[in-house]
Write a structure and sequence with these properties.
Distance between the termini: 80 Å
CATH superfamily of the largest domain: DNA ligase/mRNA capping enzyme
Number of strands: 24
Helix content: 25-40%
CATH architecture of the largest domain: 2-Layer Sandwich
CATH class of the largest domain: Alpha Beta
Structural class: alpha+beta
Radius of gyration: 29 Å
Strand order of the largest sheet: 2-13-10-3-9
Shape: globular
Oligomer: single chain
Bound molecules: ligand 5U1
Largest sheet: 5 strands, mixed
Length: about 700
């Protein structure tokens, strides 16, 4: 490149980065994924390093980031809030390079023992400084540009996890705690579900939602957002002897009552860092919150002080990234998927893109209204997000002719419309009254619905028919071998062995699995029928209440409403299902095929149960009981098993490698039991 070209490129990069930084830090409404911003930033940094004459004082590479939003009082930080150097090489080499650099800067000889590092997670949220004076929270501020932030004290006070007073008899005169406000993935999903249900625009990702909530001028709105916090460092300190290591400092912060993430370790040398990076990478999808990497810090505070800072980044710390969870790609097409209940879902076909550690080529668009709200059309450059084991999603479109350099939309791209006929069976598509969903009216005439109904029926939590997977169901339905659920039980080895990729042995295994599935429970059978609105928990409640299928099929809406957690919509759906003679016929034929379960007297059975009315949460691996077994025992004793810990949880049963549910239980003061404790509870008399 000629010098002029370098200059032009540097200007263009600065302009784009300024634009994106404003969208990200000030408006909390980014137009491009972080990975794209990082790429542009790294390009400008490299260009400036190679051509220092291009460096300008206003270059985005010269500041920490952020600006004070109008409407907030500026807060001058007593100790500057630094940013952290980022190691973008996501392989082990990133950790090794940091260790080598630290050892060189400390002038350690090659044979000096490995250094101790505090290894932590890098939370994807908003950095905050909490100022405690004699143990009382007096101020909370954002980082802003590192020197001056925004006073967000009122908003931060709404976050229940942040103590308003430290737990200490003689608290420090001044203790500034630094950390990250973030939003858990489940809280974010719930928030978006509620937005969707109300036909409102969904939030883009947990990070921006959390940042937007903290930088809200109306704290009443912040209070409605489920925010969380983790502490990871200090600002100004007076009247407190800080422990000699960073890891012990975090222990001390936890003892003061501040939330400190338990996924942290003291790692020995480069090998320890590599292990931590790998272990957290493997755990990343299961974590209840988003991280974009891990952070390594020299553990000894004395060594941190020797290392000092370069510009505004400490030499003793680095963030080591993981593959980004948001990336840009092209929307190649939109197809319609027909689900078990006939619901039509638009699915995006994407140019394959590596995101969140896997290659993604499809993403859900939820429904046509959400698609319109996002304003995406075929051919657009879009942002795809894949975090945790959540289905990949399109979060939005990269702006037309924007500073990010994406090409403007082709003219005459038609707006996507839902088809009037089912793309699978050509039955009429109905738009549900008052609702946002479109549904195929074909019922079991529709091959797609039949396939999904069969897969649901055979599922592990339903009739548990091993070996009846996607490919086989596809063949059985397409060949017309199976039209209704009872047809499954008429399948013979010979008939199955004639199918593609089906050896005689697999055919025999499937027939055996079908025979085995005939002995089941009423709850599983009800769930397997695929009645709309009847999930696993409702099926169990119905089975417990009615004890047998005859009583349930005869029950009117009033009687159904007596069942725990059954409301009018669910009751009407159950009634409508059994009012259909075809459905009753399916139940009879399945019973005639030999499906059976132990009947009970239902809730008329008044034998007192030890766990009646109690909700338990299981976490970690128990020594002898599998999760399903523990759940079955709890339910048989009248209890319920929930997926997350709340104030309503009665007990948390924790086994080896219990995760954040255990932390939450401790935080809320909920009784934690091991397997022996659970067994004792099951054996106890009711209400003991
Ligand atoms: N866990 C953690 N995240 N984080 C972010 N520690 C940490 N430290 C930071 C930042 C920006 O900065 C200090 C190293 C100054």
């Amino acid at each position: 490149m000629a010098d002029d070209d370098h200059d032009t490129r540097a200007r263009a990069l600065r302009e784009r980065l300024h634009h994106h930084a404003h969208r990200y830090y000030v408006l909390d409404a980014p137009e491009v994924p972080d990975a794209e911003y990082d790429r542009l930033f790294a390009e400008l940094q490299a260009l400036e390093a190679a051509h220092p004459e291009l460096l300008t004082p206003d270059s985005p590479t010269q500041r920490v980031g952020g600006r004070v939003l109008e409407g907030f009082t500026p807060v001058r930080h007593a100790v500057a809030m630094l940013s952290i150097r980022t190691e973008t090489d996501t392989t082990a080499a990133g950790a090794e390079a940091f260790d080598a650099r630290v050892r060189r800067e400390l002038a350690l000889p090659d044979d000096a023992p490995p250094l101790a590092y505090a290894a932590e997670l890098k939370f994807d949220g908003l950095a905050i400084n909490l100022r405690y004076v004699y143990g009382t929270l007096v101020q909370a501020a954002t980082r802003g540009d590192g020197e001056t932030g925004e006073d967000v004290t009122q908003n931060i006070r709404t976050i229940g996890q942040i103590p308003l007073r430290l737990f200490a008899d003689a608290p420090p005169a001044v203790l500034e705690v630094r950390g990250e406000v973030y939003m858990r993935r489940d809280d974010f999903e719930r928030l978006n579900e509620a937005q969707r249900a109300q036909g409102r625009k969904t939030y883009v990702n947990p990070r921006n939602t959390a940042a937007g909530a903290v930088r809200q001028l109306d704290s009443a709105i912040t209070a409605q957002r489920p925010l969380s916090f983790f502490a990871y460092g200090l600002g100004e300190v007076q009247g407190w002897d800080q422990p000699a290591t960073h890891s012990a400092t975090l222990d001390a912060l936890a003892a003061f009552g501040l939330p400190v993430c338990t996924d942290r370790a003291v790692a020995e040398g480069a090998a320890g860092l590599v292990d931590f990076h790998r272990a957290m990478g493997a755990k990343r999808d299961e974590l209840p919150f988003d991280i974009d990497g891990v952070v390594y810090k020299v553990d000894a505070i004395a060594l941190q002080q020797r290392l000092g800072f370069v510009t505004r980044e400490p030499r003793w710390a680095v963030a080591h990234k993981y593959p980004a969870q948001e990336q840009m790609t092209r929307l190649a097409g939109i197809e319609i998927q027909v689900g078990r209940t006939g619901k039509l879902t638009p699915v995006a076909r994407l140019e394959p893109v590596f995101v969140g550690g896997t290659t993604v080529s499809n993403a859900t668009l939820h429904n046509v209204f959400e698609l319109r709200r996002k304003g995406v059309r075929v051919g657009d450059t879009v942002i795809v997000r894949r975090a945790g084991d959540v289905i990949p999603e399109i979060v939005g479109r990269v702006g037309v002719g924007m500073a990010d350099g994406s090409s403007p939309r082709q003219p005459y791209v038609p707006n996507f419309r839902m088809p009037r006929q089912c793309p699978v069976c050509a039955s009429r598509v109905l738009r549900e009254k008052g609702g946002i969903d479109h549904r195929c009216s074909g019922g079991l005439v529709c091959g797609a619905q039949r396939k999904q109904a069969l897969l649901h029926f055979a599922g592990r939590r339903a009739m548990d028919i091993e070996g009846l997977g996607d490919k086989l169901v596809e063949q059985l339905v397409d060949a017309g071998v199976i039209r209704t659920l009872p047809d499954l039980y008429a399948l013979g080895i010979e008939q199955l062995a004639g199918l593609e990729r089906m050896a005689e042995k697999s055919a025999a295994n499937l027939v055996a699995a079908l025979a085995k599935s005939k002995r089941t429970t009423l709850a599983r059978f009800l769930y397997a029928l695929g009645i709309r609105q009847v999930g696993e928990t409702t099926a169990k409640d119905l089975a417990r209440h009615f004890g047998g299928i005859e009583a349930l099929m005869a029950a009117g809406v009033e009687k159904l409403l007596e069942v725990n957690d059954v409301g009018p919509i669910v009751a009407q759906s159950i009634r409508a299902f059994f009012d259909q003679p075809d459905n009753v016929e399916v139940v009879r034929q399945l019973q005639n095929a030999g499906i059976h379960w132990p009947e009970s007297a239902g809730e008329a059975d008044t034998t007192p149960k030890p766990l009646a009315g109690k909700t338990l949460v299981l976490t970690g691996t128990l020594p002898t009981l599998a999760r399903d077994e523990a759940q079955a025992l709890i339910e048989a004793a009248g209890g319920k098993v929930a997926g997350s810990v709340s104030r309503k949880t009665g007990y948390v049963v924790a086994g080896a490698e219990a995760g954040s549910k255990l932390d939450k239980a401790r935080e809320l003061g909920i009784t934690v039991l091991d397997e022996d404790g659970l067994r004792a509870l099951l054996a106890a008399a009711p209400d003991e």
